[in-house]
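Re: weekly structure request thread

Next one in the queue (234 aa):
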Amino acid sequence: MNRKITEEETKQLFLFCRKRYVYHYDLQIELVDHLASAIEEQWKTDSELTFNEALKKSFAKFGIYGFSKIKKQKEKELRRKYNRLLWKYFLEFYKLPKVIMTFAFTLGLFLLFQTSIKSSWIILTYFLLILIFIVYYYFNFTRNDYKIKLKPGKSFILINYLKSIQISIIFLAQFPLQSLTFYNLFEKHSYNQWIMFTISFFMVAFSILLYGQFFFIPKKIKEHFMEHFAEFAV
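Done, posted below.
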């Protein structure tokens, strides 16, 4: 009969991970599962091997960087996962039935440019709205809709990723600062309808991405967290 990791040994594996600077519980779970499987695989060929000996051999396979490489890989996987979700969300607006609404907004913005006496002021207004959005979001992203309050003693890579998304709103401040550059572009090319339609298209597309990144993705992260780790949320 093959030996299996006991509940006490599982606790030792969690402690082993914490002692090696792995403090995020979601990462600990993956590492403990990996180590437990590796240890049990060794016991299939050598049942006399002690738990500590098998653990030492299993950990040695991670190399000189220990668990740090696994942590970076996990963070990379999270970015890929939610970037895919963001682009899937974005592309939904260019498929039926949402594409009708998207085209209507794009066409409406284009016509507004065409009928406005000073069309370049529209882009300045747009950047002003982005600036207002940045200020609003920065001071309100801790609302319950997008915040996950944890019980003391636990941390999660997923929560850190959520915070990094929310804090990245600060980097959007550079766009309003470029408003004069766009203003000059509008002044120079406002006569070219194709350029104006392209700019209208990208303004609408950027707005969709903006909403997806700072509202849709945080909502999804919270849903996924509550699905797997609800017992750690307050």
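The chain has ten helices and no strands. The chain has two domains: 7-66, 74-232.
Next request, please.
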